[in-house]
């Protein structure tokens, strides 16, 4: 498997992935025309043909036949063309000494605090491709791309994680809060905002703080809770240094995790080495998994290898791996897939 920028030819695969995603992943609505527009914007972003604050970088996980079996994305800068909303989970204290009553109530405040941040989004791997560490590869490749082109992204990075909804697509958080103002089902609002119609949030969302004690227990339990299928993705992001800072998604209550880009593990640990071809049988096998990527923008490539040897400023790799990476001047960026294996680079 290898990660590459999305191309127009991937529309069928992206549409199939969007259908498989189901409700709650609004960055990939099952709308073929809209997805085609997303691909076009991504292609233009890699070519630097659109303003940087509008750039959207989408990558696919491709097999040996170049079929797209997974997708992930980075939005360069959020909230400039349309406001980006989250709830900040805070506390509201009420006290009266005369009658000796003190209450500390968790409260949701509507904010635009992520404006200007870069966003990690749209991570999805086809069920047939979820083995062999393909999910971690697809998720973490974005950090290496950001490192290569640091000037294209903001100081902070965040990800809005998919919140809890049941098998029928119902979100208790939405049903108890948002639905009362929008008068539509969660699936519908998820679809509309996924297609970019976020102006309805400003028009219909309540502007005043929401006391969470006024919500049902099932709705309160959704605040900061991820969908079960999203838990592995959340754990991966935490391992890289993103943290929950008391922000949640306004529709399903899913957690928002964030960090300063320059503090992230992969940004700090990755290094550039010179790639040298060597016969695979003459290299150590079953080494700790290593992320490899080239330094190209339009022709970005990233893959995993277990078959390598590092000596000084060189890394010995099988010739087919070097060929797949489309290296420029034999320079390859490397980083351990997992933080626990960081010493392989020392």
UniProtKB/TrEMBL annotation:
Taxonomic classification: Bacteria, Pseudomonadati, Pseudomonadota, Gammaproteobacteria, Oceanospirillales
Keyword Mitochondrion recorded: no
SUPFAM superfamilies found in the cross-reference section: Acyl-CoA N-acyltransferases (Nat)
Superkingdom, taxonomy of origin: Bacteria
Top EC group: transferase
Membrane-spanning residues: none
PANTHER family documented for this protein: ARGININE N-SUCCINYLTRANSFERASE, N-SUCCINYLARGININE DIHYDROLASE
GO-annotated molecular function: arginine N-succinyltransferase activity
The name this protein goes by in its record: Arginine N-succinyltransferase
InterPro entries tied to this protein: Acyl_CoA_acyltransferase (IPR016181), Arg_succinylTrfase_AstA/AruG (IPR007041), Arginine_N-succinylTrfase (IPR017650)
Organism: Litoribrevibacter albus
Enzyme Commission no: 2.3.1.109
Keyword set includes NADP: no
A Gene Ontology biological process term: L-arginine catabolic process
UniProtKB keywords: Acyltransferase, Arginine metabolism, Transferase
């Amino acid at each position: 498997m290898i990660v590459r920028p999305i191309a127009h030819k991937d529309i069928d695969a992206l549409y199939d992935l969007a259908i498989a995603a189901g409700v709650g992943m609004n960055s990939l609505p099952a709308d073929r025309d809209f997805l085609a527009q997303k691909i076009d914007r991504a292609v233009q972003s890699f070519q630097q043909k659109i303003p940087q604050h509008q750039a959207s970088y989408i990558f696919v996980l491709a097999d040996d036949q170049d079929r797209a079996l997974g997708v992930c994305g980075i939005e360069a800068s959020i909230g400039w063309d349309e406001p980006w909303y989250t709830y900040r989970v805070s506390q509201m204290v009420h006290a009266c000494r005369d009658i000796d009553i003190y209450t500390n109530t968790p409260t949701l405040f509507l904010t635009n605090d992520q404006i200007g941040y870069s966003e990690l989004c749209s991570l999805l791997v086809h069920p047939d491709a979820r083995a062999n560490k393909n999910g971690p590869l697809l998720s973490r490749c974005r950090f290496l791309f950001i490192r290569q082109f640091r000037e294209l992204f903001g100081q902070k990075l965040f990800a809005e994680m998919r919140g809890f909804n049941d098998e029928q697509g119902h979100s208790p958080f939405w049903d108890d809060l948002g639905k009362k103002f929008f008068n539509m089902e969660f699936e519908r609002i998820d679809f509309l905002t996924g297609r970019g119609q976020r102006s309805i949030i400003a028009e219909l969302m309540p502007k005043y703080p929401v006391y969470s004690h006024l919500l049902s227990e099932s709705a309160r339990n959704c605040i900061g809770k991820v969908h079960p299928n999203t838990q592995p993705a959340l754990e991966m992001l935490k391992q890289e240094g993103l943290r929950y800072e008391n922000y949640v998604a306004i529709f399903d209550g899913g957690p928002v995790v964030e960090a300063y880009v320059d503090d992230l593990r992969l940004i700090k640990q990755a290094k550039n080495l010179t790639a040298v071809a060597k016969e695979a049988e003459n290299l150590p096998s079953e080494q700790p998994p290593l992320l490899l990527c080239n330094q190209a923008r339009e022709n970005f490539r990233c893959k995993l290898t277990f078959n390598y040897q590092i000596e000084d400023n060189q890394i010995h790799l099988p010739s087919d791996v070097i060929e797949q990476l489309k290296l420029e001047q034999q320079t390859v960026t490397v980083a351990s897939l997992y933080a626990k294996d960081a010493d392989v680079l020392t």
